[in-house]
Design a protein that fits this description.
- About 40% of the residues lie in helices and about 20% in strands.
- By secondary structure, the chain is α/β, with parallel strands linked by helices.
- It has a single domain (about 5-260), classed as Rossmann fold (3-Layer(aba) Sandwich), CATH 3.40.50.1820.
- Helix 4 (about 130-140) runs antiparallel to helix 8 (about 180-190) and helix 5 (about 145-155) crosses helix 7 (about 165-175).
- The protein is globular and about 45 Å long.
- The two termini are about 30 Å apart.
Length: about 260
């Protein structure tokens, strides 16, 4: 089960699954989730890999420090966790905010990476200020006020209509995210511009995106794919933002193929 370790001066919640002597895959969660968002990946990935899941700063069981946060700081959290656990290199796979951290790692810490997978993410999300409304909602109405609009962005209409049992735990993750964690990470996303970092990434990279993702679109992924030399891109049909939950088999197939090459 999950444990906590002090790294980069905070307590980080993590879980390790799979064979102790296998290569390590590190999974990095999106905003307003925790590492259980990867549950559908674990049975497939642990057949060949040791899987490290962790909660971002201010999410799940990881300590929430006072906002604002920065992506350089979130990168340092990930590197410190790898070091604290005595790991060498990992196959890093991040979705949305996790993919934004992955871009930082690819540019600044290639020495800890076998491969990089950037899922449903972006290098920049519009002009600064677009996150102000969501941050204000969290501060004034609490995280429950963000559940419905977030689920609408994260899953296609068909999935939402037919998978109430799968939506319930996701809604709970959103609802229970500490406000400071959401606000801190939201402020980091608001001012993010990783355009200059992308050409510096030389680690073998897969860019993966749901065809129907309205939050970090196929176009956002194409920007990353075009800027990262030698990267591959996969678009998953019938999937929105949390493509790993909506289309787990296709997602698992794509990432396992990428890990296997590198």
């Amino acid at each position: 089960m999950g444990e906590t370790i002090n790294a980069n001066d905070i307590d980080i919640a993590y879980q390790l699954d799979g064979p102790a002597d296998a290569p390590v895959v590190m999974l990095s969660n999106s905003l307003a989730t925790n590492y259980s968002m990867w549950d559908k990946q674990i049975p497939a990935l642990t057949q060949k890999y040791r899987v490290l899941r962790y909660d971002q700063r201010g999410h799940g069981g990881t300590q929430a420090t006072e906002p604002p946060y920065s992506f350089d700081g979130l990168r340092q959290d990930a590197v410190a966790l790898i070091g604290a656990l005595g790991l060498d290199k990992v196959h890093f796979c991040g979705l949305s905010m996790g993919g934004m951290i992955g871009q930082q790692l690819g540019a600044k810490n290639p020495e800890v990476l076998h491969s990089l997978t950037l899922c449903d993410t972006a290098s920049q999300l519009g002009a600064p200020g677009m996150w102000e409304e969501r941050i204000n909602m969290a501060r004034e109405g609490g995280m429950p006020s963000l559940v419905d609009p977030t689920l609408q962005r994260w899953f296609t209409e068909g999935f939402r209509a037919n998978n109430a049992a799968e939506l319930a735990p996701v809604a709970e993750m959103i609802k229970t995210t500490p406000v400071d964690g959401f606000v801190g990470c939201g402020m980091a996303i608001d001012v993010m511009d990783h355009g200059d970092l992308l050409p510096k990434i030389t680690t073998p990279t897969l860019v993966l995106v749901g065809a129907d993702d309205p939050a970090t679109t196929v176009e956002h992924s194409k920007v990353i794919h075009d800027a990262v030399s030698g990267s591959e891109m996969v678009v998953l049909d019938d999937a929105a933002h949390l493509s790993n939950i909506e289309q787990p088999e296709a997602f698992n197939t794509a990432v396992l193929a990428h890990f296997g090459k590198h």
